[in-house]
Amino acid sequence: MKITFKLFASLTDYLPAAVRTSNQVELEVADGATILQIIAPFSLPEKMVHLVLINGKYIAPEDRATHALQPDDVLAIWPPIAGG
Questions:
Q1: CB under 8 Å to 21, separation ≥6 — which residues?
Q2: What SS3 string covers the chain?
């Protein structure tokens, strides 16, 4: 199934170079793939995976290993952001 995977701020460095400026990539993933299964090949540092949304809905850290995506879902991830 196809999903859209978006990374923001410093996490865009983990996307393939060709798509970094758009901060997103279309992925073909297995049916029933979970958030953690999808992000594993990108080697994102665990402490940098802070805000995780699927179609704009927050997914808590304890649910990321079991929450399966559906076709055409948008998975978006932000690192922790510090204010000044």
A1: none
A2: CEEEEEECHHHHHHCCHHHHHHCEEEEECCCCCEHHHHHHHHCCCHHHCCEEEECCEECCHHHCCCCECCCCCEEEEECCCCCC
pLDDT of 16-69, one tens digit each? 999 999 999 999 999 999 999 999 999 999 899 999 999 999 999 999 999 999
- What's residue 62's pLDDT? 96
The domain tally of the chain equals 1
What's the domain range around 69? 2-78
Q: What is the CATH number of the domain that holds 59?
A: 3.10.20.30
**pTM of the predicted structure, to 2 decimals:** 0.92
